[in-house]
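Sorry to interrupt, but I need a hand with the structure work. Can you supply me with one protein entry, sequence and fold together? No commentary is needed, just the two lines. Leave the record below and I will have a look.
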Amino acid sequence: MKIFIISDIHSNYDALASFSEFIKPMHKTGDVMACLGDIVGYGPNPSECISFVRKECDYVISGNHERMLLDKGLREFANDRAQRAIEWTDRKLSAGEKSYLAGLPEMLDIESRIVLAHGSPVEPDTYILRRAQVFSAISTLRIMKRYICFFGHTHIPGLFDEESSYYYRENERIIIKPEHYYLINPGSIGQPRDRDSRGSFCLLDDEMCITFFRFTYEIDRVYEKIKNEGIPSELGERLYYGM
């Protein structure tokens, strides 16, 4: 069984649709898909993205943008552009769509050795960027008796091992050693921030190897939708630069 890991879609359905086409040759019966949250926020097609995730993803957790959508008190901690985008999203979504998002867990186990978290297994909205944050997350995995944590939130793909060493190679299989601890970020489907405008995801195959993939999509179309909907245009402009 292969597990496709996606995160941080951010209402970018054009990117999500391109991802879906990209994986068709490698997606087989019995494979599963996991989404690490931030389905909504920033982009122009929240309903379409929610519909895709509900239909195609076997495991789904919430992200900080889902929590901001559902709890207005959390919006004060976001920047102005993020606030305006989530307020727009709030007006667009139906009660049923919000109810679905409200029912998503903040963390979720897959089998006996894998856990899904949006930010970190330590705390859902914590960023894993620095060495201390890596060691804290690894310590938490030891307590949880889980060896692999898939996480998102930073929009930066890559793998940290238990020594806090970082690895990222596109289209190359990275061996996951038994009884070793790993933090793995698939990158962002809809808003990459590693200075690469292509969408990003990763795959855990049935031989316990991780592969990171990139795919292209029509950024111009998303940018025009963002402008036409009155969402801050900077949120479309950044898509061109992967920032």
Q: What stands out?
A: The two ends are 33 Å apart (CA to CA). Helices lie at 13-23, 46-56, 64-70, 80-92, 95-102, 131-144, 219-229, 234-241. Residues 90 and 174 are 40 Å apart (CA to CA). The chain has eight helices and twelve strands.
